[in-house]
Amino acid sequence: MPIKSILKSTVVALAFVAAGPLFAQGTPINAAAFDALVAQGPVADAATIASSTWASKIKQAGVLRLGGTQTSNLFSLLNEKDGKARGFDAGLAQMIARYILGDGAKSQFTQVTSSTREQVLINDQVDMVLATYSITPARAEKISFAGPYYTSQAGVLVKANNTAIKSYNDLAGKKVATQAGSTGPAILAQFAPKAVVQEFQTHQEALDALRQGRVDAYVTDYTLLLNALSQGTGDTKLAGEPFGTKDPYGIGLPKGSDGVAFVNAFLKKVEADGTWAKLWTIAIGERTGSTAVPTPPALP
Predict the structure, then answer these.
(1) Are residues 148 and 299 in contact, defined by beta-carbon separation less than 8 angstroms?
(2) Cis amide prior to 296 (ω within 30 degrees)
(3) If you write DSSP's letter for every residue of the chain in order, what string do you get?
(4) What is the Cα gyration radius of the chain?
(5) Which of 138, 212, 233, 284 has its CA 20 to 30 A from that of 145?
(6) How confident is the model at residue 22 (pLDDT cuts 50, 70, 90)?
(7) pLDDT tens digits for 141-175?
(8) In Å, how far are 46, 183, 292, 297 from 289, measured between CA atoms?
(9) Sign of CA dihedral 61, 63, 66, 69
């Protein structure tokens, strides 16, 4: 590359940093492989759909009303060029839409946050919520969960030049971001009770605070923190290993819905035929350098 071009690129890069961007999108998902996998997903027969009031309602409406997010690099990220969300959660959601309606694109999206996920189900604004949604007793009092379809633990994210925080044991007296309405506050209360906790409404806001130096660390689900690393900017790192109890991700459904049995049967099907493993590899494994496909959590 000519020196003039190099200098120009450097100036642009420095201006980009000075402007305070957050995390640039890194290695993109293999869109063709993702789309092909969704298109090959199973389709339920009429008897299977008729056996579930929840699925029958969706079939009759002709659309699956989905509560989710579109800003998670590994789990559900919107591609603004083609208008499609891709990632591990997005793939499962589209496959469920295909399983019921024969077409993974037949969904109506509603943005949710950690604080609104139960309410959109209670208000009948969505049919299901699929958004790295941890199953907890408190949430299960308000809604029902299918799954778990994935498990994680907690992790600590810090800036790449931070040498003071090596694990959650070093968070005492530090400003630590987490998401309001997530399991983060309870995890910090248990494992880092002397941390100065600051709650943010969204994952992105917590990342903003870390990168801008307003907090010293960000504690949340380990797999969500892999998002930041997968984006390839090199300005953050994980401090220590995942910690705490395993955090099961579930698919939120209306309280008492027979959709739980229907969705669990779907999950068992895609786990048994290898689709779950293929989706994990495309959405997460290939983009984080992970070659060992995890074992899906046991389903009821």
Answers:
(1) yes
(2) no
(3) --HHHHHHHHHHHHHHHHT-------SPP-HHHHHHHHHTS----HHHHHT-HHHHHHHHHTSEEEEE-SEETTTEEEETTTTEEESHHHHHHHHHHHHHHS-TT-EEEEE--TTTHHHHHHTTS-SEEEEEEE--HHHHTTSEEEEEEEEEEEEEEEETT--S-SSGGG-TTSEEEEETTSSHHHHHHHH-TTSEEEEESSHHHHHHHHHTTSSSEEEEEHHHHHHHHHTT--SEEE-S--EEEEEEEEEEE-TT-THHHHHHHHHHHHHHTTHHHHHHIIIIIHHHT--SPPPPPPP-
(4) 20
(5) 284
(6) very low
(7) 999 999 999 998 999 999 999 999 999 999 999 99
(8) 41, 27, 9, 22
(9) negative
The angle subtended at Cα 137 by Cα 134 and Cα 142, nearest 5°, is 90
Q: Identify whether the C-beta of residue 278 lies closer than 8 Å to the C-beta of residue 253.
A: no
CA-CA distance, 125 to 123, in Å (whole number)?
A: 5
pLDDT recorded at residue 292: 83
47: left (phi over 0), alpha (psi -120 to 50) or beta: alpha
Q: Which amino acid is located at 76 in the chain?
A: S
Phi, psi of 140 (to 5 degrees): -70, -10
Distance CA 88, CA 31 (A): 12
